Amino acid sequence: MPMFIGESAGARVIQVGLGLADVTASGTAPVLVDITTHDIYPAGPGASVVFAGLVVTLRHTGGYHVGVTPIVDGVSLTEQTFTAAPPVAGSDGVAVVRAAFRQRGIRVAARVRQTAADADLELVDVAEQAYVIRQAP
After folding, report:
1. CA 57 to CA 54: how far, in whole Å?
2. What domains can be seen in the chain, in order of their start residue?
């Protein structure tokens, strides 16, 4: 059974789960994923590691355009962009992208943002790749 929501300051009723557009005062606009993860401390607070990259797992139905920005110790590094065509027929559309970088630090986070609305996009997982230099006591 479909779910509907009503507009609080208008007279529209909108069905949930249809399309990739958001209703605005001037029409519609694409809905784009834009998230920032919590900090990850691979060796614990106060430890020292060398971060080697972020691994982002996505599920898509019609290709994707995403940007991944590593954030080490609260400082954003250069955004890396990734693009892919629609998955082959019969596949689950799961893709893994690796944003490689090398930076020493204690904690890492990631900003993952969709730069174009191709089709459905699901963020499955964000993981770090790191080498421990000194473990936290």
Report:
1. 10
2. 32-134 (2.60.120.260)
